[in-house]
Amino acid sequence: MTRYPYTASAHLPEEYEEFRATARAFVEREIRPSATAWEANGIVPRELYAKAGAAGFLGLRFDPRWGGSGMDHRATVVLCEELGGCDSIGTATALMAHAEFSLPLLAEHGSEPLQEQFLEPAVRGESIGAIAVTEPGTGSDVGTLTTRARREGDHLVVSGQKTFISNGTQADFVIVALRTGAQGPIGISLVLVPTDTPGFSVGRRLDKLGARASDTGELYFDDCRVPANHLIGRAGRGLAYLVPHFAVERLVLSAFATGAMGRLIELGLDYAQARRTFDKPLSAYQTWRHRFAEAATRLEASRQLTYHAAYLLDLRDPAAEATVAMAKLFSAGALQSVASEMLQIHGGFGQMEESPIPRYYRDAAGFSVGAGTSEIMRETIAHRLVDTSTSNQ
Description:
It contains eleven helices and ten strands. By secondary structure, the chain is α+β, with helices and mostly antiparallel strands. Helix 5 packs antiparallel against helix 6 and helix 7 (238-274) runs parallel beside helix 9.
């Protein structure tokens, strides 16, 4: 197998490259051999979370007190690049919906009792977490959420509906964005709801175009009573907690995209060198050599922007949010282009489900929608660009 050179990672300290080797070995040993079966089943087995936890992948940036590794966002990018090339974006999504989408809110804003009860076993992969924000009709407009929690004595009573929730059908607990106050963004809070709570139920497991190994469900909360101390952080601060969290989700998807592009180029180069037409390999034709050059350029631009965004997140730089949006916007388009080109070079074989190529082609479609659409990314970038320019006049 041709190995695509990771030029951006050459600038990372040696420990990141050692971590990359560990993550790559995990992908080759624990994920790729089963990727096709998990895609067909539409769900990842719980055992994979335990294996990922034992490998140290489920709490990279958390305090070692809770089993974390105390690393940074660049380590997250390294891991997610390798997961992005695992031949199942759905599997990568399932793992990171747990480790990077739901657990950081608990690690950063949860009380110590909540962290002891839920975070520590989740970092070990003994339980599965999910985050529930999207509702039917709300999409990226978080300020209009209608799921609500009312206070009754020492409990919060949660009522409402969520949709498009990754890990929704097998999660052991869900961090729910809901309304505890007045209409608008200021009334949003976060509450942890164990899924064995009476009144909680899972609706349909949703049948998606791509990322099919990631179980995605509809969730219903019918007067679910949870202890009031299951509130994460302060009431009414939920949106303030979610905004930086959204940036991490977008960084994860950008890293998935770079890993997927690298894997696609590897597969494409192998096929182009093996497949012969008119007495020479496809790789000898200028048209395909130039298409590979374009694909590699898109990959490297995506990778450099993604690592730069991670660096700014680690610095808590004010430009980090817009830079992450740039990385996701660009990498989503780049992956769709590269997936299309690698599908084309594989010809008829690229149409066969025995190959990971059509799977990547389908998966690529979701990158311009997940964690905020490309239209939202453009607005985030424009907000930083235009508003900063105006305020400096």
